[in-house]
Write a structure and sequence with these properties.
about 600 residues; 28 strands; about 20% helix
């Protein structure tokens, strides 16, 4: 199979320019390090504004998911372990104290829990395990942890009221929490009820997870919580519903009024949405065509390229991103970032330092972060004054191979400033297994293939949404260089990939069962030993009681004997002194 172009991805032979192995996933951070939220140690005040750099403390960890909020960060490893660092005043780091941590530290309370997803708010965290259990910790004010009270938790604690339910996703707002469960599918919310952010038709606080009745019977694909509002996307229509505080028009209903129950965002009807992200006072949504819409408070919406930005009370497409296909969007406190299908990151907002970092670009104009170009970014998360991204060459290559395998011909593409990946050559089994078994080309590099800046040539990678929708603008047309992979081989490749995933899961579960069995046997042995010790002590206790009775009886007999002898001697001494014999004490006693 042909090899991946190092020049195209900015790679050294085996490591990226930031020092990350191409076979592992690494976390990249930038912005303020004042509270240790970057995980790169404590820095002097003058060096606290940091350009994108790899977190050395996670170099040996295969990271699969990152999250951040406030002034701290979190990473989930492929093994299911969770690492946190940064500001810890409210116990949001989950280490059992309120200290700041300046480098990634494993959350011991979640070891062996197989965590797959975390959501961070400014003062609390929620984590979902592979088995569907939900853990929360941090500040408990207003009942946002869902444990029935308002007490804070310094260690992860399972939400007991959701026992018996399978949680598939959770989201933390600054003062409330929400989750989606399966069988039956239902959205639960709890915490602060002000402005109706819980969606129950009132403003009452809930200290325990409570089902949102207005969403019953709907197939909810995801839920998102912001500072003061909430949102869901329903399938298969891809409709967006929002509720809660309406300041700055962040609900997208054309006004600034609060909404105490879920309401359809009419301005996005006809747009099939796939994800949504909420900040304190703004919102962003992503369509299946890779389009980004933002609305709410100005200064962070990305519309500055079209003139002075104002509050948007209706969803508005970010025109500066019309030339790229976006696959993920994240809202921070006052900035946003997106990831494109080619693994590039674009950002904008109130500051360059934790936004796009480009000194010559306007802060609120979407700009590609050049230093991350070619670094295979698959996820990004934004907080208050910092951002974190996940770089994973293997995952990006796998997604590209999957999309290419689903394609059976050429497709007309949108203008792509970030230069899409184009697969050429054969060797599909290798391509699916090895990210280096792909050859990356820029459109227009080879005229013989018919690729240009306006359209992708044969073998262009399609997204899952293009294939599912049969988009006429991105439709299938047979052409030169069509990917030679029969449907049967495709199915086998996909099934093999899924089988490998389940095998890895089975091995992990088997390892956990073996460890549990070993611990159980050790406990049983210890219990047997303690039982035998207890029996010995009990026997010794019985023997000691018998010996004590014998000693007491002998002591009493000896005491009486001594008293008798003393009395006889006393009587004899008195008789000799007076010359008159006296009766014995024994006689008197008689």
């Amino acid at each position: 199979a042909s090899r991946l172009s190092s020049s195209a991805l900015g790679l050294l032979p085996h490591r990226c320019a930031m020092g990350q192995s191409s076979t592992k996933a690494g976390a990249v951070v930038w912005g303020s390090s004042e509270h240790g939220q970057l995980g790169i140690g404590s820095l002097p005040a003058e060096d606290r504004s940091v350009q994108p750099r790899l977190i050395e403390g996670l170099r040996s960890i295969h990271v699969r998911h990152v999250a951040c909020s406030g002034h701290y960060s979190c990473a989930v490893a492929e093994s299911g372990d969770v690492y946190t660092w940064g500001f810890g005043k409210d116990g949001q780091l989950g280490h059992g104290d309120t200290k700041d941590v300046y480098s990634p530290k494993a959350v011991r309370g979640l070891q062996s829990k197989m965590i797959r997803h975390v959501s961070c708010a400014e003062h609390h965290v929620a984590a979902v395990s592979e088995t569907g259990a939900l853990f929360t910790w941090g500040k408990g004010q207003n009942g946002r942890l869902g444990h029935g009270g308002v007490e804070s938790e310094l260690l992860p604690k399972v939400v007991e009221s959701l026992f018996g339910h399978h949680v598939v996703q959770a989201s933390c707002g600054d003062f409330h929490t929400a989750c989606v469960i399966l069988n039956p599918m239902q959205v639960y919310t709890w915490g602060l009820g002000l402005s109706g952010r819980l969606g129950h038709g009132d403003e009452t606080d809930r200290h325990l997870p409570t089902p949102v009745e207005a969403l019953s019977g709907l197939h909810v694909s995801c839920v998102a919580c912001g500072g003061h509002h909430s949102a869901t996307i329903t399938e298969p229509s891809g409709h967006l519903m929002t509720w809660g505080g309406g300041a700055f028009g962040k609900l997208g209903h054309g006004n600034r009024l609060p909404q105490t129950a879920p309401k359809l965002v009419a301005g996005l009807q006809g747009k099939r949405l796939v994800s949504v992200s909420l900040g304190p006072h703004h919102s962003a949504a992503l369509t299946h065509k890779g389009e980004v819409y933002t609305w709410g408070q100005s200064g962070r919406l990305g519309h500055a390229s079209q003139g002075a930005e104002v509050d948007e009370m209706l969803p508005r497409q970010v025109a500066a991103l019309a030339g790229v296909f976006v696959v993920q969007v994240s809202c921070g406190h006052s900035h946003c970032a997106v990831v494109t299908e080619t693994g590039d990151v674009w950002a904008w907002g109130a500051s360059r330092a934790f936004g796009h970092t480009e000194p010559t670009a306007v802060p609120n104009v979407p700009t590609m972060i050049k230093v991350l170009s070619g670094k295979a970014i698959v996820q990004v998360a934004c907080a208050v004054t910092h951002s974190i991204a996940l770089s994973d060459y293997r995952r990006l290559a796998g997604k590209a191979a999957l999309a290419a395998a689903r394609s059976t011909g050429t497709t007309t593409a949108i203008k792509d400033r970030a230069s899409p990946l184009v697969v050429t050559g054969g060797g599909w089994p290798d391509a699916l297994e090895d990210p280096n078994a792909l050859h990356v080309k820029k459109p227009g590099m080879d005229s013989a293939e018919g690729a240009s800046g306006e359209e992708r040539g044969a073998g262009t990678l399609l997204t899952d949404h293009d294939v599912a929708e049969g988009n006429p603008e991105k439709g299938h047309t047979a052409g030169k260089g069509m990917l030679p992979m029969p449907s049967t081989e495709r199915e086998v490749a996909f099934l093999s990939n899924d089988l490998k995933t389940y095998q890895e899961l089975a091995l992990r579960l088997a390892k956990q069962l073996q460890e549990t069995k070993t611990k159980l046997e050790a406990l049983q042995n210890e219990n047997s030993f303690l039982k035998s010790e207890l029996e010995v002590m009990h026997q010794c206790s019985n023997d000691a009681d018998e010996r004590l009775d014998t000693l007491r009886r002998r002591f009493n007999e000896r005491l009486k004997e001594l008293e008798r002898r003393y009395a006889e001697k006393a009587v004899a001494a008195l008789g000799e002194a007076g010359g008159v014999p006296l009766p014995s004490l024994a006689g008197e006693d008689g």
